[in-house]
Amino acid sequence: MMLKITRQKVHDVMSAKQEPVAFCESGDTVIFETRDCYNDSIIPGPKQPGEGDPSYGNPATGPLFVRGAKPGDQLKVEILSIDLAKQGVMRTSPTAGAFPHYYKEQTFRIFDIVDGTHVQFDEGLRLKLNPMIGVIGTAPESDEIDTHTPFDHGGNMDCNKIGPGTTLYLPVNVEGGLLSMGDLHALMGDGEVMICGLEIAGEVTVRVTVLRDQLKVPTPFAVRDGRAMTIQSADTLDEAAAKAANAMMDFLTKASGLDPRKSGMLMSLLSDMAVCQIVDPKMTIRVEFPLEIMEHYHIQLP
Ligand code: CA
Ligand code: CA
């Protein structure tokens, strides 16, 4: 039977001190059942104990202890599927995001998901969904990082490329890695400009594998649709941009053995930089580079 971590097993801080709620072996497939970022407080329906308290924000399900994972290893998380709940929710905020001056008060709006693939935005407009995971990470190296904040451990990266079919690489900083996730979005554009995506509960099925003695990627790192991506967060977009570009440049240069003059040119010619989000306590940028060019220079990702 496949291991399933229910949405009762949530926390709001990623930390080495967080007690694991489940254990698995490297290579296992695990289902994470997740609450929405408002702790399921807005969408009506039966509540589990602990659900529905709106003061508890951005709950992450977990953490999962992966047996054999040791500090210095990397965790490969293959996102096999995301099953969304029947309804999602968005909010306006008078205090956060790019448009607070537009709104006098916080308001919420609930959306119905149609056929699991679309949302009816208004009478005339139906939008295709692009399910993604807002919060996914391991325990950080030191300190505790709340689930609102993205950083080197992953966390609230709000990267819309982290969805079904994506392989995500995360650091292992503590025994077992301690993987958690939550804050699913049915749809979200780059930037998450207003303050939220189409926030939704759901179930994520992942395969987790411990990597050791193999080529190390600069975590957090994602692969999807023939693109490799560094995903970096910092206090400002400028810093996050430099961090993400340099993470890719360092990896490309080292793994290919190319002269930095040549790898730098390839970066300028072929890498695409995008804003993941501008609304969290740290800003997140990703830099994408074509996998086929890496393979041309004999870089094989683990
Ligand atoms: Ca988020
Ligand atoms: Ca969210």
Describe the structure.
- The chain is mainly β.
- It has a domain at 23-69 and 80-147 and 174-207: Sandwich (Jelly Rolls).
- It has three helices and 21 strands.
- The chain has helices at 237-256, 260-270, 291-296; strands spanning 3-5, 10-11, 13-15, 22-24, 29-34, 60-66, 74-92, 107-114, 118-122, 125-128, 132-137, 144-146, 150-151, 154-155, 167-171, 177-185, 199-211, 221-224, 227-234, 272-277, 283-290.
- The strands form two sheets. The chain has a 19-stranded mixed sheet that branches. The chain has a two-stranded antiparallel ribbon with strand order 3-12.
- Strand 18 and strand 19 (227-234) form a beta hairpin.
- The longest helix has 20 residues, at 237-256.
Secondary structure elements and pairings:
Layout: E1 3-5, E2 10-11, E3 13-15, E4 22-24, E5 29-34, E6 60-66, E7 74-92, E8 107-114, E9 118-122, E10 125-128, E11 132-137, E12 144-146, E13 150-151, E14 154-155, E15 167-171, E16 177-185, E17 199-211, E18 221-224, E19 227-234, H1 237-256, H2 260-270, E20 272-277, E21 283-290, H3 291-296
Parallel strand pairs: 1-5, 4-6
Antiparallel strand pairs: 2-6, 3-12, 5-17, 6-16, 7-8, 7-15, 7-17, 8-9, 9-10, 11-14, 11-16, 13-14, 15-18, 16-17, 18-19, 19-21, 20-21
Helix pairs in contact: 1-2
This protein binds calcium ion (2 copies).
One calcium ion is lined by residues 37, 134, 183, 185, 196-197, 199.
